[in-house]
Amino acid sequence: MTNNKVIATLCAVTTIASGCGVQAAEPPIENKPNVLFVLIDDFGWKDVGYNGSTFYETPELDKLSKDFMRFDRCYTPSPMCSPTRVSIMTGKNPARHGVTQWLPGKATWPNHPVAHQRVICKVPKSPAIKNSEVTLGEALQKVGYETAFYGKWHMGPLKKTGGPKAHGFDSQMAVIEANRCAMFYPFRGHPEYFPAAKEGDNFTDLLTNNAIEFVSKKRDKPFFLYLAHFAMHAPIASKPELEKKFAEKARKLSPMSEDELKVKDSHAHQPYNRRQQFPDYAGELATLDENIGKLIQSLKDTGQYDNTIIFITGDNGGRTAFFHSSPTAVQPLRAGKTFTFEGGLRTPLLIHWPGATKPGMHTQTSVTSTDFYPTILGMLGLPLQPEQHKDGVSLLPLFKDRKLSRNAMYWHFPHYQGEGSYPSSAIRQDDFKLIVNYHLKDVQLFNVVDDIGETNDLAGSMPEKVKVMRNKLMDYLKETGAHIPTDNPRYNPKAKPIPAKKAKDAKEKKK
C-alpha cells in the first residue's frame, strides 16, 4: 500500500461518517461481521428463475431471493466487465476512474475498417485501476479484516497493478488476469490456477471448494472474501450430464427459425438473441447455482451465516449476441452486454445483512454497483469515505424502507463492440433514461419504469426533458474528465467491410 493510500485510509477511519454519526471509537474488530462478496461474470437479469426464466434452473438463487433482500433494479456502472469491476473496488463511475472499456481494450471497431467508425473512440484513459485508489479491500484490511480475492481480476495487467495483493488483499487464489480461462482443466492453458487439478475438473467447482475452505477456517478476526466467478463468460461449457438434461428440455421448445431467434435492432449493428435455449449455457449456469448454494450452506454449517454480510450480483448484463459461443437472452429487457439499454446494464442483486434483512424483502428502487463500497462500510459501522466512493450512495435506508438520496445515475461507454453496440452515454433520472448515441448521432428517451423494454422513444414528444437531461449528462462527463468521442475525418459509410475470413485470420495471427 502506498503512503498516500495509508494516509487516506487513516484519515477516513478517524473522522465522523458522512450523515451517520459514527465516531472513531468503534467495537472491537473481532465483533464485526464477515463480508462475502460474490461477483458473477456476464450475469443477465433474466438468467434466474425468480426474474422469469423458465428454461434455466436456478433453485439455489431462487431460494436466496426469498431469504435475502432482492433488488429488482440493480444497474451496473457499465455494460462491460473491467469498468464495473474497478467501480466496485473504488466506488467511482467509469467516467471518473477512467477505465471505460474492457482491458486492455481496443480503440477500433472489431472486424471493421476504420472508415466505418463515424466517431473515434480512444482506448481507456486509465489502462488499469490506479494505485492511488483506496479500494474496498484496503479499507477493510486497514481496520483488521482478513481479506482474500479469488477468481477473475480483469482490472489491469498483473505486472502493472500488482494484482489483488497490491490492492488490499492478504491472499489470492486462481487470479485470472483478464479473460483467459475456461470451465474445464487445463483452463484454456492455465493449469496453474489449480495446480492439483486433473482432466475433467470444473473451474467453478474448484473455486467454490477453495472458498469454502477459506470461510470455514478458524480465525480470531472477521474475513472479507471477494469471490469473482469466471462463469458466465465465454467460452461457455457444461458438464456433460447437465448439457444432456437441458438438450432434452430444448427439444420441447417451440421451433424458431434463425430470423425469428435473432432480434434486428435499429440501434445495433449485429442481431441479438431473443430466447434462452442453449443447453451448454443452462448447464454451466446450473453448476454455478449449485456451487453458490454449497457456499451459503457451508456458512450455516459452521455457524457463520448469521454473522456474515453477503452480496451476490453481476458485472454487467447478459451477453445476448451470437459471439464466440452460446449467448443468453434477457427479454423483455432490450439488447444485452455492451449496450446502454436495460439489457446491458441490469443484473440480479441479492443482499443478506444479518439482523436487517428478513424473508420476502425486496425493493424497486434503482441502485448501482458504486453503492456497494459505502453500503458495506455503513453495515460494518465504519466511517464513510466520500472523497473515495464519490459516485456511490449508501443503501442502508432501503433496509428500513426509506428513500435514497440520489439525483441521477450515469453511464459512459464510448466504444464500438463486436456484440453490436455503438458508442454511447446515458443518464437516468427519476423514471426516465436518456441515451446519447455518438455513432447514430441521435438521442433516445424512455420511461424505463413503464416501458422496461425501451420500445417507446419519447425524445420527439418531450424535447424540454431531453434538453435538460442531455445538458446534465454532458456537464457530468465534463466534470469527471471523460473522453468524448470525436468525429472521424476518415468516416466513409460506403467503405467495404472486412471479410469474415480475413478478420478471423487476422485474429488468429495476433494470437
UniProtKB/TrEMBL annotation:
Residue ranges annotated for the Sulfatase N-terminal domain, each copy included: 33-381
The entry's keywords: Calcium, Hydrolase, Metal-binding, Signal
Signal peptide: 1-24
Domain of life per record: Bacteria
Nucleotidyltransferase found in the keyword field: no
Single GO molecular function: metal ion binding
Biased composition (Basic and acidic residues): 502-511
Similarity remark: Belongs to the sulfatase family.
Protein name, entry field: Sulfatase
Originating species: Oceaniferula marina
